[in-house]
Each structure stands twice: as structure tokens, then as C-alpha cells.
């Protein structure tokens, strides 16, 4: 994208539950909103089933994401996938300039950061080269592609165990490389230990990834105690080591906690006016789809109100059903008397 940056009212960075909900709420108000994201769903892609989302008995994470995206598109929200925002600056006129890894530029009056968290990497030679060529960070997404093949999971805790359990029903062989003693949910541990195709390598760490230039062929691992290396010939490597907040690109505009999460107030505002954050990337301790959705809705309403004030309009959104400006809401006489201490 050469020349002038692509202009929108509000840009949402990330298309997980927080970002999708924010886009839905903004689009319903007629805002020109663009969602820029690497993919659809974010960490929702990891959820094989969600059973605690209000109003929905059970649903796959990706199905929930697709539903909300479709709903947002119905009201006019725009989406740009395959883009990673790597730079955000606030300009002298108060707007924001965003630049992607590809060099594409975007400009908006307000920005909502809903980038969630990214999978932790092995940080070994060959990982970058074979990312997407046999290395996956989403077992539930890509596991079915390795049916009848040899695989390895580099993981930790329940996240790693779940990946192994899933692959054990698909693959011909599953190595489980974990840097500690096996731990996690007892039922998961029992399932993994009893699976005939699974070989567990406790206290082992990855050393390097090998391939033929096109695809992964092996993972070299090392015993942390003896230092002995072992070559695992595999067709696929699944990395399930947890997640980390990648917020370095905005640290000049926000306050971060010790985990690199963005600190926000009760309105999802950061320390920079016009810059909001929602979902798992924030310091709010509970990481749940329904909480991310609520955060996204709050960020959208706050961003909409910010946009109106920036444009000199005395209009605010306070509820789903109406806009309020100078007109005061009607209050019943009974409620007024009660407030005065009368019955």
C-alpha cells in the first residue's frame, strides 16, 4: 500500500472475541470500523468446545468467532486478515498511524488493541524457517492434517497434554517433549500415559528443527539431566508452551504490568487518549471468552463516545437501545421521592 495511509474512523487490532465484539458494537452505530488481524478467532481457535458462554449450550471456538464476525459484517464492519501491526504512533492532529509488518499503513481517530496473546515459541534454530512448514502452534487447528503421520508435541501442563491426547487419536506416533516432570489434570495424564502411540520424554528440551528445505523432517531434543541428544524423525511439530503478550510495539503509548499486559481503567482506556485495549492482552486477571466479549463491548462504547467528542458532537452511547445527549432521562416521581427519603 503505497502513498497515503488507508483511513477509517476506528481501527480494531485483533479478531478474537474482544476485537470481534468491539467491531460489532461500533458497526451497529454506523462507525467506519476496520479490523486488522493475523487471523480470525485468535485463541478461540484453541477451544475445541466452549460450554460456559451465556445463551449457547456448547460451541466450537472457531464457530463462535465466525458467528460474531458474520454479525459484525452484517452491520458494515470491514476485516483485513494476514496483517500484523508492528508500529503505532499518535500524530500531531490526535489521530493514530498504524503500520503492518508488510509495510501497509492505516490511520484512524481511535484504536482498540485486542491482540490477545501469542503462542510462546521454542526459540531454536530452524523454527523460523519451518514455521507453517510442519511447525504448528495450534494443535486443534492443524492436528487433523497429520492423521497417520509421526508427530511431536513440545508442551507444558494441561495445554501440552490436551494436544497429545488429541493427536493420539489421529497420528501414527506422538512424542511428548516436556521440560519438566509430567504434570497436569490427573485424567489427562492417565489418558496420555495409556495411549499406545505416545512416547513421553520428560525433562527434555528442543535443540533444533531439521528439514529438507520444504518440510520438517526431525526435531533434535536434549535430556536436561544427562545432556544427551536424541533425533526424533517426525512429519509435524506442535508447540504448546503457553502464551505471551507481545506489546513491545505499543509500550511507548501504554502502561504495562510485569507480564507485559496493558493496564486499562474501567472504561478500557489506556494512558493515551483515544487508545483502548480489551481482552486477554489487558491486565484483567480472568481470561475467558465472555469476559473478552464484555471488554470489547466496553471498549467500543468508550471509543465511540471519544470519537463523538473529538468531532464536537454531544452524543453518547450508554445503553444498547438509545443514544443520550443533552436530554435528561425521565425519572418516575416515586423514584424521585425515594431519593429524597420519602415514601
Element layout with pairings:
Blueprint: E1 6-13, H1 17-28, E2 33-37, H2 61-74, E3 78-81, E4 85-90, E5 96-100, E6 105-113, E7 118-119, E8 135-136, H3 139-142, E9 150-155, H4 157-168, E10 173-178, H5 186-194, E11 198-202, E12 204-211, E13 216-223, E14 229-233, E15 236-240, E16 243-244, E17 275-277, H6 289-310, E18 316-317, E19 323-324, H7 333-339
Parallel strand pairs: 1-2, 1-6, 2-3, 6-17, 8-15, 9-10, 9-15, 10-11
Antiparallel strand pairs: 4-5, 5-6, 7-16, 12-13, 13-14, 18-19
Helix pairs in contact: 1-2, 1-6, 4-5
Question: How does this structure look, described?
Answer:
α1 (17-28) runs parallel beside α2, α1 (17-28) runs parallel beside α6 (289-310) and α4 (157-168) runs parallel beside α5 (186-194). The chain is α/β, with parallel strands linked by helices. The longest helix is centred in the last third of the chain and has 22 residues, at 289-310. The model is unreliable at 326-343 (pLDDT under 50). The protein is built from seven helices and 19 strands. It has helices at 17-28, 61-74, 139-142, 157-168, 186-194, 289-310, 333-339, and strands spanning 6-13, 33-37, 78-81, 85-90, 96-100, 105-113, 118-119, 135-136, 150-155, 173-178, 198-202, 204-211, 216-223, 229-233, 236-240, 243-244, 275-277, 316-317, 323-324. The chain folds into two domains: 6-117 and 245-324, 3-Layer(bba) Sandwich (FAD/NAD(P)-binding domain); 135-242, FAD/NAD(P)-binding domain. β5 (96-100) and β6 form a beta hairpin.
Amino acid at each position: 500500500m503505497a502513498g497515503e495511509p488507508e483511513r477509517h474512523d476506528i481501527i480494531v487490532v485483533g479478531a478474537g472475541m474482544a476485537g470481534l465484539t468491539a467491531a460489532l458494537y461500533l458497526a451497529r452505530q454506523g462507525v467506519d470500523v476496520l479490523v486488522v488481524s493475523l487471523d480470525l478467532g485468535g485463541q478461540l481457535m484453541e477451544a475445541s468446545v466452549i460450554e460456559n458462554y451465556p445463551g449457547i449450550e456448547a460451541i466450537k471456538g472457531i464457530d463462535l468467532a465466525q458467528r460474531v464476525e458474520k454479525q459484525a459484517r452484517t452491520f458494515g464492519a470491514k476485516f483485513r486478515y494476514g496483517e500484523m501491526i508492528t508500529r503505532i504512533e499518535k500524530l500531531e492532529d490526535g489521530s493514530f498511524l498504524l503500520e503492518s509488518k508488510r509495510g501497509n499503513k492505516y490511520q484512524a481517530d481511535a484504536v482498540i488493541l485486542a491482540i490477545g496473546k501469542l503462542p510462546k515459541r521454542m526459540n531454536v534454530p530452524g523454527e523460523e524457517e519451518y514455521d507453517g512448514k510442519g511447525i504448528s502452534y495450534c494443535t486443534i487447528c492443524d492436528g487433523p492434517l497429520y492423521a497417520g503421520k509421526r508427530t511431536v508435541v513440545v508442551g507444558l501442563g494441561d495445554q501440552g497434554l490436551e494436544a497429545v491426547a488429541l493427536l493420539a487419536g489421529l497420528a501414527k506416533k506422538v512424542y511428548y517433549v516436556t521440560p519438566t516432570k509430567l504434570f497436569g489434570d490427573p485424567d489427562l495424564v492417565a489418558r496420555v500415559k495409556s495411549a499406545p502411540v505416545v512416547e513421553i520424554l520428560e525433562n527434555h528440551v528442543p535443540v533444533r528443527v531439521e528439514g529438507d528445505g520444504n518440510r520438517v523432517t526431525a526435531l533434535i531434543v536434549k535430556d536436561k539431566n544427562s545432556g544427551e541428544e536424541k533425533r526424533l524423525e517426525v512429519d509435524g511439530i506442535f508447540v504448546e508452551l503457553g502464551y505471551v503478550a507481545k506489546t513491545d510495539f505499543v509500550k511507548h503509548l501504554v502502561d504495562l504490568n510485569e507480564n507485559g499486559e496493558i493496564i486499562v481503567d474501567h472504561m478500557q482506556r489506556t494512558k493515551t487518549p483515544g487508545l483502548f485495549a480489551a481482552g486477554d492482552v489487558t491486565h484483567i486477571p480472568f481470561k475467558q471468552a465472555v469476559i473478552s466479549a464484555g471488554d470489547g463491548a466496553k471498549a467500543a462504547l468508550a471509543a465511540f463516545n471519544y470519537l463523538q467528542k473529538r468531532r464536537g458532537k454531544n452524543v453518547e452511547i450508554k445503553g444498547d437501545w438509545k443514544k443520550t445527549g443533552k436530554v435528561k432521562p425521565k425519572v418516575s416521581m416515586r423514584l424521585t421521592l425515594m431519593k429524597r427519603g420519602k415514601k
